[in-house]
Write a structure and sequence with these properties.
It is a multi-pass membrane protein. With 341 residues, this protein is mostly helical. It has 13 helices and no strands.
C-alpha cells in the first residue's frame, strides 16, 4: 500500500535543450582564421616604404658633394707631388705615401700631436665645466636676471670669430692693453706694464684658451639649461626630503638626465676645439718658436709657407683620422644612451 505524500511523481520530464547548429559558439569554440592549407594565417609585416629615402636623397646628395668631394680631393693631393712647380707646370706626379713618410719622419710630429690633443682636452673640459656652472646658475636665477644672462650669452656667441680674436688681441696688447693696465692698477700681482702675454708658449696658450672657451660657453650653457628645464622639480624635492645634499642631487638626478645632452655637446666641442685655427693664427702665428703650433697651423704653414701642398694635405688627412678616432667613442656612447631611453 503506497503512502500518500501529497506530491504527484513526474512521469515524463522534458529533456534539456541541446545546442543546435544555429547557436553561437563560445570563446573556446571561436573559429580561428585559417589559410587554404589549413594552417593559421600569420599577419604579414608591412614593408618599408621608399618614400623617406626618396625625401632624404636630395639632402644626402648635397652633403656628399659638399663634404665628400673636398675630402676625396684632399686624399688625392696627399698622394701627389703637389708643390710650387705643379702650380706653373700643371703636372702633379703620383708619389704614393711619400708625403706621409715625410710627415712621419719630421721631428715636429710628436710635439705637435701632443700639443694639439692636450690643448683640445683642456678646451673641452673648460667649456663643459664652465658651461654646466653657467646653466646651473641660470636655473637658480630669477626671470629678470636669467633673461639678462641669456641675452649676454647670445651677444657673446654672435660676435664673429675674427672680430672677437682681434678685440682679444687688443685687450692683451703689451703697451696699451686693458688687461695689463688693470693688473698694474690692482697692485696685487705686481707690475704688468709692457708685459707680453704672447711671448711665452704657456701664457699664449692661456690667452687663446680663455678666448676659445669664452666663445664656446654660450652654446653649451644654453643647451644644458634647456635640458635642466625638462627635469621635474619633484625629483629634487623628494631627494631633499630624503636628506640628499646638493652634490648628491646633482650626481644622482641632474647628470643622468643630462647624459645624452652632455655627450652631444662633448662631441661637438671636440670637433670644434680640435680644429681651432683662426684664434691661434691671428694672435701667435704658431709662435713663439712653434710653441703654439697645432696640427691645423702646421698643415697651413707646410702648404703655404713651405710650398709643399702635398705634405700639408697629408697632415690634414692625419688630422681627420685622429679626430675620427677621438670622437668614435663619444658617438657610440651617444647611440647607446639613445637606445636606453
Amino acid at each position: 500500500m503506497a503512502t500518500d505524500t501529497g506530491l504527484e511523481p513526474e512521469l515524463n520530464p522534458e529533456p534539456a535543450p541541446t545546442p543546435t547548429s544555429t547557436s553561437m559558439p563560445t570563446s573556446a569554440q571561436a573559429p580561428t582564421p585559417a589559410s587554404t592549407s589549413g594552417r593559421p594565417r600569420v599577419p604579414r609585416r608591412p614593408g618599408r616604404s621608399a618614400l623617406p629615402y626618396a625625401l632624404l636623397a636630395p639632402a644626402g646628395l648635397i652633403l656628399a658633394l659638399v663634404i665628400g668631394y673636398p675630402l676625396v680631393r684632399l686624399v688625392i693631393i696627399s698622394l701627389q707631388d703637389y708643390g710650387l712647380r705643379a702650380l706653373f707646370t700643371g703636372t702633379t706626379p703620383w708619389i704614393g705615401l711619400a708625403n706621409y713618410r715625410a710627415v712621419w719622419n719630421d721631428d715636429q710630429l710628436v710635439p705637435v700631436l701632443v700639443r694639439t690633443v692636450g690643448f683640445c682636452a683642456a678646451l673641452v673640459v673648460g667649456t663643459l665645466v664652465i658651461g654646466m656652472l653657467t646653466a646651473l646658475m641660470m636655473r637658480a636665477l630669477g626671470p629678470g636676471l636669467r633673461t639678462a644672462v641669456t641675452l649676454s650669452l647670445i651677444a657673446a656667441w654672435a660676435v664673429p670669430n675674427v672680430a672677437a680674436t682681434l678685440v682679444w688681441e687688443w685687450l692683451f696688447q703689451p703697451t696699451y692693453g686693458v688687461v695689463n693696465w688693470l693688473l698694474t692698477e690692482a697692485r696685487v700681482f705686481g707690475d704688468f706694464q709692457q708685459h707680453n702675454w704672447l711671448s711665452q708658449s704657456l701664457s699664449a696658450f692661456g690667452v687663446v684658451w680663455t678666448l676659445v672657451v669664452w666663445q664656446s660657453v654660450p652654446f653649451v650653457a644654453l643647451t644644458l639649461y634647456a635640458g635642466l628645464t625638462q627635469i621635474p622639480d619633484e625629483y629634487y624635492e623628494a631627494a631633499e626630503l630624503d636628506g640628499a645634499g646638493y652634490w648628491s642631487r646633482f650626481r644622482v638626478i641632474t647628470v643622468p638626465f643630462l647624459r645624452p645632452i652632455l655627450l652631444l655637446v662633448g662631441i661637438m666641442s671636440v670637433i670644434w676645439d680640435f680644429n681651432v685655427f683662426n684664434q691661434i693664427w691671428i694672435m701667435t702665428k704658431g709662435g713663439p718658436v712653434n710653441g703654439t703650433t697645432t696640427l691645423g697651423i702646421w698643415s697651413f704653414t707646410k702648404a703655404f709657407a713651405g710650398q709643399s701642398y702635398g705634405q700639408g694635405a697629408a697632415i690634414a688627412v692625419v688630422s681627420v683620422l685622429l679626430l675620427l678616432s677621438l670622437t668614435v667613442y663619444y658617438v657610440r656612447r651617444l647611440v647607446r644612451s639613445g637606445e636606453e631611453l
